[in-house]
């Protein structure tokens, strides 16, 4: 007697529902994606009871004919693909043909639709997978899918759901992701009869501001690799905006929200020089790639993908983001976009927590804090932090200036406080000859360069440099700024020469996995370029015979394993560069000016000029801002001028 039986279709659908419809948010995703594939320009969603009691999605898409309604609720029935070639080149959001069938098998579902060339709409109902006859209905052009009592016939599955508020939050997050990927489509959401949001059709920048937040928009940098076979574009946050959580990370591949380790690794590598490793960057990135170069049929939920050439994708994203982040300097963009709001919040609003000073030896004077879009989210409300005691710092002492320093200071102040009105009066009232000579001498002068960070005025408590610009005040953390300047100079000097290797007197060996041995053989030439010489000893051991000279004191075995692990994951590795940069960063920190050191005005101005010409100078090596701008209007508001 045979022990293998053919499962009934209804049970098959319920099994599939366990993969496709994990919770109400997954059902909502499947339905809204069908609306997008139907060309809808407006999608409205109504939720009740966290999506368990009711999910209703209405759109103004092309609609369906009466004969298509039963097929829409059948397994593996779809209009998206017809053969294998269509599957390999699929651009639609849905294509598996099991979403609606799976939802209908575990709920009470009503499907109503009308096309533009039919006199009225048609409707079909499904309860516990049993379909009713198609009947006439009243409905505008488009489709409405109503799902009631999700998992009513599978109580065991329903027990695994969270509270209604939690399930609603997942539904709202899922809908926001879809709205973010399709700004040309209007979206609206109602929860328990109350309107939550209504996004009109708008530009990508406007949709990003509406969903991710105005704070992110104010602190974001545009990214665009340009039109090519592969293209990445979108927005990334300035390093000074990044936080310790990853809730503002959105990645879309061909407008499909995904979580991909290759993309996330490339983003992390691009930020490694400007962000502390405990902080996560915020970004909204769109990767456009030919569909034949990406496999979206990896998982039923289609949130996992696989690239045919993951190394090319990694390199594109890394270099595109790295180029934008390299331009985070004073002559391109502000370090902190909301410095005035933070200042006013501290002075006029409720005082926010101030970080404690760093222990002795750090040389910064302030704790490493992240100025994010909202100061209140940077420091938890339940965290009690003692304000900094200024008496802990060495009291500033002004020494006398040398003759050369005095002359340089006088020239600086003469430039800052020159009287343009007096110059105009002299040109008007002086004799014609003098006036002509003045015009001729001025024409011979070279146009003065623009200095975004202005000119130094003074030093505050041996920690900050105060500088004046044409429209306000600049505050510079001199240690953080000098650290970044020195670090970038050291990196440039290292890249200008060839990589030197050091042959180990006694090779280091380590036990290698099968994957590590395969990677060592496949990437042997790449490893040599990194300065690593690896030899497979044939007994499960790999020997490290040479390492980069700068890393001669490092753990050679651990270094080799880290490089091999990264090569296996993304096809390329920046481990060597990362290790070397850590050494250069430490050297730059120790070689930079310390808090408490008194600088002369020429030294301060020299640091400001270096910052304006140095890549990534808006933040130190740990992601802290190196300078902030306080505009004249913000100062007037603090002193209530003009009110």
Question: How would you summarize what this structure contains?
Answer:
By secondary structure, this protein is α+β, with helices and mostly antiparallel strands. The chain is 38% helix and 20% strand. It has 23 helices and 23 strands.
Structural commentary:
This protein has 643 residues and is an alpha+beta fold. It is built from 23 helices and 23 strands. Strand 1 and strand 2 form a beta hairpin. Strands 1, 2, 3, 4, 5, 6, 7, 8 and 9 form a nine-stranded mixed beta sheet that branches. Strands 10-11-14-12-13 form a five-stranded mixed beta sheet, sandwiched between helices.
What is the count of β-strands?
23
Mean pLDDT: 76
Shape: globular
The low-confidence runs, each spanning 5 or more residues with pLDDT under 50, are 350-399, 438-448
Helix content class = 25-40%
**What integer value in Å does the Rg equal?**
31 Å
| Assembly status | single chain
Distance between the termini: 94 Å
Strand content: 15-25%
Q: Helix count, per DSSP? A: 23
Major sheet characteristics: 9 strands, mixed
